[in-house]
Specification:
The complex is a heterodimer of chains A (288) and B (236). Chain A contains eleven helices and two strands, in the order ααααββααααααα. Chain A is mainly alpha-helical. A two-stranded antiparallel ribbon of chain A has the order 1-2. In chain A, a hairpin with a 2-residue loop joins strand 1 and strand 2. The longest helix of chain A is centred in the N-terminal third of the chain and has 32 residues. Chain B is α/β, with parallel strands linked by helices. In chain B, strands 6-7-8-3-9-10 form a six-stranded mixed sheet, with helices on both faces. In chain B, strands 2-1-4-5 form a four-stranded antiparallel sheet, with helices on one face. The chains are: A mainly alpha (288), B alpha/beta (236). Chains A and B meet through helix 6 and helix 7 of A and helix 2 and helix 3 of B.
Chain lengths: 288, 236
């Protein structure tokens, strides 16, 4: 294992970290406001990726055109699920919401399997020519994933820090009761938070399919490292999720230098468990 | 009663099954500072919160600017010109001072920069610290942020729940001075206070509440001069 190999693994780590980051931001935003962990988040990613695949392949569009399709699809599914199921459970215990989100995960995945079947599919057909930088090899897909994530994260930051709705989301996450007595319409902000979290999940799903292949299980498999990333960064803190996603992604990939790659998810969990023991509120001090 | 900004009449109600209010009444006129004092557990905060729709009222009614607002939702009451400053957790800690004030103006779609300047005139410290996170400020400064936030909608009435609780004597005095200034802007003030003596000194009128009912009602000076009240509630 020499330096070049480690650098190569670092690039893979940033790619995985980008995907986990986009998923973890959504999970974290929703937790901050609704106080429950959305187990259907991984399958929101899957549905966005599949619909984008369907649109791209039937109209012969380039891959990048799939990004808005995936984002809009997942956002719409997220809002629809919230309004039809979660909204009625708003006043119940968080554990009931948690279990129902588990149920929604199964429902969404089953629908994806019914429509597209259980087999793997490739988002990109044919052979891609990798870019060579000295001894390092970079797939063009990976550049898209890293670049796309960077743009989305910057836009998200501008949204949360500059716009009225973005600030209202942060206010609700800080103190729901105070937000209500201030006159902020919480239900409206919650809908927009689902749309935002869903859109980020859609992008994550498309990038995941671009990195590997489309399978109905892809989102579900990614869910646990996404939770690990959100917890690592401090649950309820979207900016922490960026740090958490990158750390989990890079550590997982780098671990393959010394361990068989089958241990990648175990490494993500080991990092999460150590974090929970050492600093339970996460790197950026999220909620307990 | 038409000259009254707020009138609460014979209120009975509470949070769960237990009634904390057992027939309490109160009025606030335009431009008035009204203080509710009384022993712990008398229902002081509950009476004030009931004006803001935060208490389940079973009997009696609450009229604000001629409109019945009994059991109305807080976000609808805010729109009608009443603001509420909770005792604790009264700022958005991970947001800057300026963002906290902007959230106060969430319902406004017009240009509120003039109102922001007026608030900065009363609380110059908020202007200095507008980029600072509210969560990193002292208790007294947070109280200023919270009052500033409540003023952004240019309300007719502000409800303050123990605005000086936990503050140092210097800050207590400053806070009361600010409250007087806010009142001079033509805004009615209803507050619950533990520092009853100082609060009554700036109050036009005060109510002494006990067991969920009105016990005494007089001008601020009148209550301060009443020996029985002084012995019982104001610490001699």
């Amino acid at each position: 294992m020499d330096f070049i190999d480690l650098l190569q693994l670092l690039i893979y780590g940033v790619v995985l970290g980008s995907i986990l980051t986009l998923g973890a931001i959504g999970v974290s935003l929703l937790f901050g406001i609704l106080r429950f962990s959305n187990f259907a988040h991984g399958d929101l990613m899957t549905v966005g990726a599949y619909v984008a695949y369907a649109v791209i392949s039937s109209f012969g569009l380039p891959i990048w055109a799939g990004l808005p399709v995936a984002m809009i699809t997942s956002a719409l599914v997220a809002v629809a699920v919230d309004q039809s199921v979660y909204r009625r459970l708003r006043r119940t215990k968080p554990v009931i919401l948690l279990i129902s989100s588990f149920g929604m995960a199964l429902v969404v995945r089953a629908i994806v399997q019914l429509i597209w079947g259980p087999q793997d599919r490739a988002l990109v057909k044919g052979i891609q020519i990798p870019i060579r930088l000295g001894d390092i090899v970079i797939r063009p897909d990976h550049l898209w994933i890293i670049g796309g994530t960077l743009v989305i994260v910057i836009l998200l930051h501008l949204f949360l820090s500059r716009t009225r709705m973005g600030k209202a989301m942060r206010a609700l996450s800080d103190n729901m009761d105070l937000a209500r007595v201030t006159g902020i319409d919480a239900e409206r902000v919650i809908i927009w938070t689902w749309a935002l979290g869903g859109a980020l999940a859609g992008a994550a799903g498309l990038f995941l399919a671009l990195d590997a292949r489309l399978t109905p299980m892809m989102g579900w498999t990614a869910l646990l490292p996404i939770f690990a990333a959100a917890i690592l960064g401090g649950f309820g803190k979207p900016y922490g999720a960026i740090v958490g996603g990158m750390v989990i992604g890079i550590v997982s990939e780098m671990s393959t230098a010394v361990l068989p790659s089958a241990y990648k998810p175990a490494i993500a969990f080991a990092v999460m468990i150590i974090m929970l023991i050492v600093k339970p509120n996460g790197l950026l001090g999220g909620r307990k | 009663m038409s000259d009254k900004l707020l009138s609460m009449t014979h209120l009975v109600g509470g949070y769960g099954g237990n009634d904390i209010l057992k027939g309490a009444s109160l009025t606030v006129a335009q431009d008035e500072v009204v203080v509710i004092v009384g022993p712990n557990g008398a229902g002081k905060s509950t009476l004030m919160k009931s004006a803001f729709g935060l208490v389940n009222i079973r009997e009696g009614n609450i009229v604000f600017q001629g409109e019945d607002i009994t059991n109305m939702r807080p976000d609808l009451i805010v729109r009608r010109g009443m603001s509420y400053v909770p005792q604790e957790k009264n700022v958005f800690p991970s947001m800057t001072v300026l963002e906290n004030l902007e959230m106060g103006a969430y319902l406004r779609r017009d240009d509120y920069s003039a109102q922001l300047e007026r608030i900065f005139e009363i609380f110059p410290r908020l202007k200095e610290r507008r980029k600072q996170l509210a969560g990193s400020m002292s208790g007294g400064e947070r109280q200023m942020v919270a009052m500033g936030r409540a003023l952004m909608l240019d309300p007719k009435l502000i409800l303050l729940d123990e605005p000086t609780a936990g503050l140092s004597p210097l800050f207590i005095e400053q806070t009361f001075d600010r409250i007087v200034e806010v009142n001079k802007m033509g805004i009615g003030i209803l507050m619950v206070e533990q520092n009853a003596k100082q609060a009554l000194e700036i109050a036009h009128r005060g109510y002494v509440l006990a067991m969920g009912r009105n016990r005494y009602e007089d001008t601020g000076a009148g209550l301060l001069g009443n020996r029985e009240i002084a012995e019982m509630f104001l610490g001699g």
